[in-house]
Design goal:
The complex is a heterodimer. By secondary structure, chain A is of the alpha/beta class. Chain A has helices at about 80-90, 110-120, 145-150, 165-180, 200-205, 215-225, 240-250, 265, 290-300, 335-345, 350-360, 360-365, and strands spanning about 5-15, 20-25, 30-35, 50, 55-60, 60-65, 90-95, 125-130, 155, 180-185, 195-200, 210, 235, 260, 305-310, 380-390, 410-420, 425. In chain A, the strands form 4 sheets. In chain A, strands 1, 2, 3, 4, 5, 16, 17 and 18 form an 8-stranded mixed beta sheet that branches. In chain A, strands 6-7-8-9 form a 4-stranded parallel beta sheet, with helices on both faces. A 4-stranded parallel beta sheet of chain A has the order 10-13-14-15, with helices on both faces. In chain A, helix 4 packs across helix 6 (about 215-225) and helix 6 runs parallel beside helix 7. Chain B is α/β, with parallel strands linked by helices. Chain B has helices spanning about 25-40, 65-75, 95-105, 120-130, 145-160, 175-185, 215-220, 245-250, 255-260, 280-285, 290-310; strands spanning about 55-60, 80-85, 110-115, 130-140, 165-170, 190-195, 210-215, 225-230, 265-270. In chain B, strands 7-6-5-8-9 form a 5-stranded parallel beta sheet. In chain B, helix 2 (about 65-75) packs across helix 11 (about 290-310). The two termini of chain B are about 25 Å apart. Classes of the chains: A alpha/beta, B alpha/beta. The interface of A and B includes residues 199 and 205 of A.
């Protein structure tokens, strides 16, 4: 590989506290050789060509902590190749994949298959999770230790929650012993049973069964109480309401845990569901505008550590149904960063903070050396034209599934190039 | 001037819910319906306004009165009416609502009347077919012709709606009739009291501009109309109430509770009734108080008006 030189870029690397105009040098092995304001034309041999980025942004490759892939079992929704292409176009270079596949990722032998497929078909870094319980049934634990040795990065039942309190306490003990990360989708399944959208005036008007915000709060409170006993590595996958945030604020003082939010809950509210738009049937559901604003505040106050895409590809047939019958989730890996940039453009969140929640924060929780531009590390990064205006159109989606929650939204900011291990894998 | 043809006054292509209608739309439908009331009582009930038009009744949920009312309404106007009960055919074979809609659409109907167990089903259908769609009840969301016939019944007896105090009592959370009536009665200037145990009260109902009560006696105070709703046990997936006996004790309409309403208060019920659960059987049959039969009768007139107006669109 030839060395690569980029100059005159706005470099943002929150992990190394870099926020300056400078350059980036990639060595022959695809590692970062030098970065920052010290890198200028003087560092470059006169015969070498360099790229003048004219103040475009260089940011570390995004680490998306919550991604559903259809492989194995639902390849028609998304496979590793299409996921990888979609991710690259959105500046995402590492993904954490959910175990809700068919068969479920719950035993050692399937992990081998998964890793092989990921390696052969995906150009991005795939970090697979395994389920907390066998076949996602919420009754018997999987082999955390053996699975971790095989390369499983974390344990979660994906869009399902461990409902049994005794089992949850035992999961935490095992995870504590084996130093495993537990990620919980927080929703009491009895309280939210048959629920489709936020419980409130919109659900009353549309005549749809509501999901109370308390269903989320109860599980968070339960899990954080259990953590007092065995403080394993614990991550609340996504929160959606102000009430949950209040609990998190209170408990961050005495228990160690981290917390994520979906970009959907930061950018949309229940009113966007309008006339039964099934593409906005999400879990957790979109809540009120007050909740959305509170979640943004939660990012600014460091109560929320991570923003995820909650990328859940669903084929259109599963969405062209009545609201009750339609499947849940939205395809979002391609629009994660551009949609998050809306919060920067409308001055809700500082750019560095947004990048932090998308790069080094998730990497730290996962204990992986990604999401930074540290010298000597893999050159996983992307180039961003932060002001480029564009309109979201599902026909332009690279993902196999086009179920975007933000069709026709006018966004500002687009990834122009994405590099993994120094290799340019996406170019607009 | 008397024979000048009325301009089409309705603003919508479909009748999906009261929410979509303006006051002018409602008044237009009600005035058309009034003209059919006497026709329905006459010897020769047949008109040919809709001759050559095809009406499909698409019922995914069992229904007797609404379906027969729509069928009769269409036939009296001269339309070719086909009724399909799909709760045990195509859907069971895995066909989706849109597939069914496309199939029917290919037969070129002029109007489709749909009843479906899921909220929003009529909206979905209306996006996929070329003809007008009349919502005959979608899940818990709306049942617009029921609200219109209720309004017509009230006007028929009380000569107005504006200024009346109307109580809607019972299983509000599962009721499309309640929602459509709340929108319509509010629009026409009534004061609406909603009465239900908290377990059957939808969240934030007050934001729809109604007063809510869990004490039936307080909610009935000085009401001109008492509209009782059926307890929809088939939609209750878990325990909402301890027993029918207790429900009757606190939320069943009995003579002593009715005392709290005005002396000339009328009793309404969209049917079918659970006698002895939400309503005392004597009250239901009391010809001085109950207008339940009249509701059914005027239902045909309202549906004739809706079919006529939306078929002409």
């Amino acid at each position: 590989m030839k060395k690569k030189y980029f100059l005159n870029a706005n470099i943002i690397d929150p992990q190394n506290s870099i926020e300056e105009i400078g350059g980036l040098i990639i060595d022959e092995n695809g590692k970062i050789e030098a970065v920052g304001k010290k890198v200028n034309t003087n560092n470059i041999p006169s015969r070498e060509k360099y790229i003048d980025l004219k103040e475009k942004y260089i940011i570390p490759g995004i680490v998306d902590m919550r991604v559903f892939v259809g492989e194995p079992g639902f390849e028609y929704k998304e496979n590793f190749r299409t996921l990888s292409e979609a991710a690259l176009s959105g500046g995402v270079t590492s993904v954490v994949t959910m175990p809700n596949t068919n068969p479920v990722i719950d035993n050692v032998s399937i992990v081998d298959f998964l890793k092989r497929r990921g390696r052969d078909k995906a150009k991005i870094n795939i970090f697979p999770t395994a389920s907390l319980t066998k076949n996602l049934e919420g009754t018997n634990m999987t082999e955390f230790g053996l699975l971790k040795e095989k390369g499983i990065i974390a344990f979660t039942d994906g869009y399902k929650t461990i409902q049994n309190t005794r089992l949850m306490s035992r999961i935490m003990r095992s995870a504590y012993d084996l130093n495993c990360l537990v990620m919980q989708h927080v929703e009491d399944s009895e309280l939210s049973k048959d629920g489709m959208i936020n419980d409130g005036i919109v659900s009353t008007k549309l005549g749809l069964q509501g999901i109370s915000e308390l269903a989320e709060k109860i599980i968070i409170e339960r899990d954080l109480t259990l953590l007092e006993d065995f403080n394993c590595r614990y991550h609340v996958s996504q929160i959606s309401s102000q009430k949950s945030l209040e609990v998190i604020k209170k408990r961050k003082e005495d228990v160690d845990f981290t917390c994520g939010v979906s970009i959907n809950n930061l950018s949309l509210n229940e009113n966007d569901i309008g006339d039964f738009k099934t593409f906005l049937k999400l879990s957790p559901p979109l809540r009120t505008e007050e909740d959305r604003v509170a979640l943004i505040k939660g990012i600014n106050n460091d109560l929320i550590d991570v923003i995820v895409s909650d990328h859940k590809p669903e084929d259109e047939e599963q969405k062209r149904l009545t609201f009750a019958q339609a499947s849940t989730g939205a395809s979002g890996i391609e629009t994660l960063l551009p949609l998050a940039l809306e919060l920067f453009h409308n001055e809700s969140v500082k750019l560095k903070k947004i990048i932090k929640t998308l790069t080094c924060n998730p990497a730290k929780i996962l204990k992986i050396n990604k999401g930074n531009l540290t010298v000597g590390n893999d050159a996983d990064f992307c180039i961003l034209d932060i002001n480029k205006p564009w309109v979201v159109k599902k026909e332009n989606f690279i993902s196999k599934s086009k179920n975007t929650s933000i069709e026709n939204r006018k966004l500002q900011g687009k990834i122009t190039n994405t590099f993994v291990k120094g290799e340019e894998l996406f170019k607009i | 001037m008397a024979n000048v043809k009325k301009a089409i006054k309705i603003s919508q292509k479909h009748l999906l819910g009261i929410q979509d209608l303006s006051i002018a739309d409602v008044n237009y439908i009600l005035s058309e319906a009034k003209q059919f009331i006497s026709l329905n009582k006459s010897k020769n009930k047949k008109l040919d306004i809709l001759r050559g038009k095809t009406q499909i009744n698409l019922f995914f949920e069992p229904s007797t009165r609404t379906q027969s009312s729509f069928e009769l309404a269409g036939k009296r106007l001269g339309a070719d009416v086909m009724s399909m009960n799909l709760n045990n055919s195509a859907i069971k074979k895995g066909e989706t609502l849109i597939d069914t809609a496309m199939t029917l659409n290919a037969m070129h109907p002029d109007i489709i009347v749909i009843r479906h167990q899921d909220s929003g089903a009529s909206n979905l259908l209306s996006q996929k077919v070329n003809c007008a769609v009349l919502n005959a009840g979608d899940g818990r969301r709306e049942h617009p012709t029921q609200a219109l016939l209720d309004a017509l019944t009230i006007i028929d007896r009380k000569e107005k709606i504006e200024g009346l105090k109307i109580a809607i009592c019972g299983d509000i959370v599962h009721s499309r009739v309640a929602r459509s009536n709340i929108y319509l009665l509010n629009m026409l200037g009534a004061e609406v009291n909603i009465i239900a145990p908290s377990n059957l009260m939808p969240k934030d109902i007050g934001k729809l501009g109604v007063n809510s009560f869990s004490d039936m006696k307080k909610g009935l105070k000085d009401c001109d109309i008492v509209m009782m709703l059926r307890l929809q046990n088939e939609r209750m997936t878990s325990s909402f109430l301890s027993s029918n006996r207790e429900y009757y004790e606190y939320y069943g309409l009995t003579p002593d509770k009715l005392e709290f309403a005005k002396d000339d208060a009328l009793i309404m019920h969209p049917g079918p009734m659970n006698r002895g659960i939400e309503i005392d059987t004597r009250l239901a049959d009391d010809i001085n108080r109950s207008v339940i039969k009249e509701q059914v009768e005027l239902g045909v007139a309202v549906r004739m008006a809706c079919l006529k107006i939306f078929c002409e669109k």
